[in-house]
Amino acid sequence: QVQLVESGGGLVQAGGSLRLSCAASGRTFTWIGWFRQAPGKEREFVATSSRSGGKVYYLDSVKGRFTISRDNAKNTVYLQMNTLKPEDTAVYYCAASELIYSSRSPRDSNLYAYWGQGTQVTVSS
User: Fold this and answer.
1) Residue 61 in 3-state DSSP?
2) How many other C-beta atoms lie within 10 A of the C-beta of residue 97?
3) Distance CA 122, CA 63 (A)
4) pLDDT per residue as tens digits for the range 38-79
5) CA–CA gap between residue 117 and residue 90 (Å, rounded)
6) CA-CA distance, 81 to 60, in Å (whole number)?
């Protein structure tokens, strides 16, 4: 049974930091990433990492502030978020794919068959 369990969300002031964790189990995943959805907005890609960590991709607006990393021994993916801004406020979802070959971009939510329940991140100004 596949499980993705996120943790680490919370309330932080602008300029602060949070680290999200996603504990994944039940499959060997190729891509594990993070998406977010703010109230009244569509879900958007944030960051993703290949299994080896050799390929990582970021949303342009978080480059230089967020870092995604994987610990395959613990089957856990982290999203370190620094210099947070109020516009980063959203529910953050962990997503995982077991596909080895796909024509879809790693930024495409349709690549990911498995999703966590989400964790709220609120950044106050």
Assistant:
1) helix
2) 21
3) 19
4) 999 999 999 999 999 999 999 999 999 999 999 999 999 999
5) 13
6) 14
8 A C-beta contact, residue 125 and residue 63: no
d(CA 8, CA 6): 7
Do 90 and 29 touch, CB atoms closer than 8 A? Answer: no
Rg, C-alpha atoms of the chain: 14
Q: What is the per-residue pLDDT for 101?
A: 82
Max distance between CA atoms of the chain, in angstroms, equals: 42
User: 33 near 93, Cβ under 8 Å?
Assistant: no
Q: How far is residue 86 from each of residues 13, 16, 51, measured CA to CA in Å?
A: 8, 10, 31
E strands, the chain, are 3-7, 10-13, 18-25, 31-37, 44-49, 56-58, 66-71, 76-81, 90-97, 114-115, 119-124
pLDDT digits (tens, 9 = 90+) for 78-123: 999 999 999 999 999 999 999 888 889 999 999 999 999 999 999 9
| Helix intervals (H) in the chain | none
